[in-house]
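Everyone, describe these structure tokens:
***
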Amino acid sequence: MSWLEVKAEFAELPADTSPIVELFRDHGIENTQEIGTSISGCLTNVEGAGDQAQRLSDALREIGAEVSIGDFEEQNWDEVWRQYFQPRRIGKRLVIRPTWKEFASGPDDIEIVLDPGQAFGTGDHPTTRLCLELLETVGVSGLDVADVGCGSGILSIGAVKLGAKSVIGSDIDPLAVEVSNENAALNEVKIPFVTAEGVHGVIAAHSLHTIPEESEWQQDEHPLTHRPAVVPSVEPRAPQFDLVVSNIISAILIRIAADVATIIRPGGKWIVSGIIEQNWEDVQEGAAAAGFTLQIVRQEDGWVAAVFSR
């Protein structure tokens, strides 16, 4: 598979790059990379990709970027991750370990084994660490949990291992869903991951009963943990989750706040992360407008995570 890269170079990146990231998303690029003062992303080089890249280029130039379009030489991602991803302890009991490293876990440790591939979420970034710490802090034992924006699946897997009754994960990026499925299998946990935007995926997965019984998992030759599921959007009949976790950019958190409120049972919680300090007030206002009350705030290296109750 070949790729077409669109790279936007700025004199200086703003503190909040989410509007630029959203611009890439609006033109079909879900995953972007920031290096220095540039932001780049790739389109699959199929018919029409050149025109799509040009439209994105024009939009980026309108906001002051110098833009280049060219072929992208795919990196050996496995070697990149092996250099930088090391075992890490998070919170009191959680240990994140890459598949290629051994770690001497204690008797009370909960180990999450990851091969992150190209999906976001290894525990090395403050936003992921804060989410995992908050999952441990609020407690998930016996709860129905939804992970909106599952990335590598790390939060969903953590919730299962912390004792959640059920977990459903969704992501707009099919690659993230594929990686999440693989990581769930690595950890021997059963989690339906679906490809969908916002809360629609988890609503549909729950409403259509896509969490099979144990016997169904054993009988199915192609269990849901081994394939991405794309499900239709349906309206929820009633709040279905005790806890929702969303580690995504501020603009999307604000956009989905009202939808998230409709799927959380009374007294339930919403863990949010991926928020830079400058956007925290806007996220808090958006959550409050949707009926949420702030319970806990954590900060690390300019990033904010929080727990809201419904």
Notes: The radius of gyration is 19 Å. The first helix runs from residue 18 to 26.
